[in-house]
């Protein structure tokens, strides 16, 4: 049996597999997601000379969650990536609901930031809803497309999987998030400009960081001794377990 065949199915061991870097990627994934969603409460404008599109602050870091998703699916498989996506969603909801609760509490008369906290985080529940819907659709599409393309390419041409999955996942994510978060808040021309700029930025960052993704994927596969091909994986977002079968 070839080494590719041995790694062609989700890992099924009697004892839980201990990975060196999986927990680190999971933690970074959750932190970047939470920070990005809090930053999304602010919209800004970038001056490109010929175009001055608006963008939400979360766009700066958020594409990294898709790169982490690529790493997880490519190395550890769709089933483990699915668990991380659910963990990220849970932590994001916890953070946003906590800030919303704190914002609703009566403010001390001596507060040096009187009123500011409530103004900033009053928009957080809508951002949470938009983020949850968009992230759910986008991340699972991203992981699914990457896993399928890995089978179609036989594990070759990693760039086709990372960029191809980003085109689909980020497209869905950007559209859902922008419409749910900013529909009725921003003028329609500004909103569609935001959608276009955010999408181009996210895909562009994935392309620019492709050499880094190659290096990290290669390192992780060697260090962890795993390279999962999801031939018999159940791709339902609601299936739980390491094997996902």
UniProtKB/TrEMBL annotation:
Belongs to the vitamin uptake transporter (VUT/ECF) (TC 2.A.88) family. Q precursor transporter subfamily. Signal peptide: none annotated. One of its GO terms (molecular function) is transmembrane transporter activity. Keywords: Cell membrane, Membrane, Transmembrane, Transmembrane helix, Transport. It comes from the Bacteria. One of its GO terms (cellular component) is plasma membrane. This is Probable queuosine precursor transporter. It holds the Pfam family Vut_1.
